[in-house]
Amino acid sequence: MRNKKSSESAQVLKRGSIKSVATGSAPHRGGTLDRKLSDEVTLSRQFQRAVRLDTDFGSVEALRGYICQGTARNVLEATARHVVQTPQRAFIWTGPYGGGKSSLAVALCSLVTPNKVVRRAAMDVLDLAGAQQSDIVSVFSATKDGWLVLPVVGHRGSVVDAVSSCLDEFAGTSVLRSTKSGTRQRIALLFKALAEQAAERVGNGVLLVIDELGKFLEAASGDGDDIYFYQELADLAGRCKGRLIVVGILHQSFEQYAHRLGIVFKTPCSPRWSEGARRGTMAS
Questions:
Q1: pTM score, two decimals?
Q2: Is 97 within 8 Å of 206 (Cβ atoms)?
Q3: Residue 3 neighbours by CB distance under 10 Å
Q4: pLDDT by residue (tens digit) across 125-167?
Q5: What is the pLDDT of residues 207-257, one digit of tens each?
Q6: Other CB atoms closer than 10 Å to residue 12's CB: what's the count?
Q7: Contacts with 45 (C-beta within 8 Å, 6 or more apart), sequence order
Q8: Using CA of residue 125, residue 129, residue 130, residue 131, what is the dihedral sign?
Q9: How far apart (Å, rounded) are the C-alpha atoms in residues 252 and 120?
C-alpha cells in the first residue's frame, strides 16, 4: 500500500501553479493554490549572472556555492605541476562557453590574494585544506602580504594597454602615463615593471590572468597589437627572477583563432602557448 503522506507530497506544476501542498497536508478544496514557483524556490546570487573576473575577484560571495569539478581540479594540478617541473610559466586554459573557466580563475586569484578571509574561502572551495602535498598548494602558497593579482578581461582593444592599465591600478606603476599606446616603449616598460614586481614579492609572486583572451586576438587581426607580444610575455614569465605566472583563457586554441581570423603567428610564438593549452583543457 502506498504511503498516504508520500502521495500527498506529490506536486504537479500546471500553468505556474502548484496543485498540492507539502508532505502531511491536504490540497485545497476545489482547485490550485495561488502560488508561483518563485515563492518556493530562490536562487543564490552567483547563479543569476555570469562570473566576471575583474569584478568578482576578491569577493567571498563570488566563491560561495562554487563546486570545483574534477576537470577543473585537473587543470589546476597540471598548471602547478608544470611550474614545479618545467620552466613553463604561461598557460592557456581552453573550454566551451559555460564550462566554468572564469569561476576557476576567480578561485585561483582568490587563493593568493592578500585577504586572508578570501584566501581561506578559496582553499575550501578548491578542497585544499588537507592537501599540503599538492603541487597547487606548493606553487600558489602566499604569505600574509599575498601575491600581486592582475585580473584582465578581454575586449576589442589593445591587450598591452589593458595589462598596463591593470598593473598601474593594482601596483601603482605609471606605464600608461609614461608612454604612448601602440609603441614599443610601452611594451618594454610594461615588461620591466612586471619583472620588478615579481622580483620584489619574495615568497609570493605576480599572477596575471587574461580572461576572454580571444577578444584581444580578434582585435589583433585588424590593426591591433603585434601578436608577437604573447611570445615575449611567455618568455618574460619563464626567465624573470621572481615568480610571474600568466594564464590566458580561451574558448578554443590559438591555432583555431588564427585560422578563423587569418592571423599568421610569428614563429615560435604559437608553441609557447599551445603547449599550455594542451596542458589545461576544460571539458563542459
A1: 0.77
A2: no
A3: 9
A4: 998 877 777 899 999 999 999 999 999 999 999 999 999 999 9
A5: 999 999 999 988 887 777 888 899 999 999 999 988 999 999 998 776 776
A6: 10
A7: 61
A8: positive
A9: 32
